[in-house]
Amino acid sequence: MRAFISLNLLCDESISKVLADLNSIGVKTVNSNQLHITLKFLGDIDKKHVDNISKAVEATADVFHRFDMKINKVGTFPRKDGSGIVWIGSDDQTVIDISKKLDELLYSNGIDRENKPFKNHVTIARPKHDIKNINEYLNSREYHFKEQTINSMFLMSSVLTPAGPIYTIEKEYPLISDNL
Length: 180
What we know:
Keywords: Hydrolase, Ligase. Belongs to the 2H phosphoesterase superfamily. ThpR family. GO terms for molecular function: 2',3'-cyclic-nucleotide 3'-phosphodiesterase activity; ligase activity; RNA 2',3'-cyclic 3'-phosphodiesterase activity. Hydrolyzes RNA 2',3'-cyclic phosphodiester to an RNA 2'-phosphomonoester. The protein has a single domain (2-174), classed as Alpha-Beta Complex (Cyclic Phosphodiesterase, Chain: A). Helix content is 27%, strand content 32%. The chain is built from 4 helices and 9 strands, in the order βαβαβββαβαβββ. The chain has helices at 13-24, 50-61, 93-108, 131-139; strands at 2-8, 36-44, 67-70, 73-78, 84-89, 121-125, 147-150, 152-159, 166-174. It has a 4-stranded antiparallel β-sheet with strand order 2-1-8-9. The radius of gyration is 17 Å and the shape is globular.
């Protein structure tokens, strides 16, 4: 199973605006029902490791309260060939703290540590060319994002298809509710 751990987002009207702007200039965007922040990409995992992974995710979720997160930036991760990733992101410290704690607990459960710094972002498009022009276009626009309440972490599976990835929620891990 190809898997990752995420915080899933809703595609509200502010995010829909960015997706529509990208579509208007010919950029194919990701499925708006699959928006997420990848906390940890696990790759292909054996089903026998799911219990250890699940323990680590559950232990992480048991430490953090539900929180409101605001997307506050749009950008690109360009590649040398002109392709890249278009993303929306947040400076929210809670997301960064969750990522660090998760990495620590996964490591204590036998999963390798992340070897690159965490980038708090949601991939919204993967253009094959013109990433520089797309970035300039996005920087010329003004976006006002709304806060989203993050209630849970998710273990997701991913199947790659020619039409794009298909994500499935394998398990949900609720964060601590303040309404006890």
